[in-house]
What does this fold into?
Amino acid sequence: MGEANRPVALITGASSGIGLDLAKLFAQGGHDLVLVARNEEALRAVASECEKSGVKVHVLAKDLSNSSAAQEIFDELSSRGIAVEVLVNNAGFGTHGPFVRTKLEEEVGMIQVNITALIALTRLFLPQMISRKSGKIMNVASMAGFAPGPYMSVYYATKAFVLSQSIALSHEVKKHGVIVSVLCPGPTRTDFQKRAKIAESKLFKKPRSMTSMDVAKAGYEGLMAGKLIVVPGFSNKVIRVASKVVPRGMLAKVAGKMNMDR
It folds into this structure.
């Protein structure tokens, strides 16, 4: 627990976008924070903003594409006696383009951040939650998790992994008082598309892109309500229902058109 028995929320990818807005919401909700991202300067700016809510904020500048990062985070918090009540696995990035032309190191790095680091952090912090019979885990997947996605094939597959594992884990840990919730945003206005180089794709030219705060609010409220799958936005909910009945080959065709440049 944090100061004055405030619960502690650990948020990865907390320096921008959905992670930054989740940090603000957890601070407003009375959680002390552990903020993790690569950019220490950006994290400190987020920390000082969150501290205005009267909570304590710890900053850990870690690059989750390093295989040792998850264990380092766990060891550092353990040595400081900080128990994590809420784990938010939000860090993630995408690559874009025909798979045969993408950079191998970027694809492997993305699997490390989107999947391996998420699994490592969850596995490290979960035993404490089970022994306390309380804890919450939010995994940020994507609408991409519901379909195959040409031109972003590995990214879509990482999100399908997160979605599947989150649903399965929820069934395992519910009886121990631990809640698992998986947030599946659609197109969201953040730095994500800049890094994935897809700002010009049809997907982000649609007016239905949501703000990161709208997505963060849906995720926060869904987690607090113990909701397993959170799909923010009406049009995304419609797509999710359609994904259950439309053949996967057809879904891939539609996603491929959306992911192509212009």
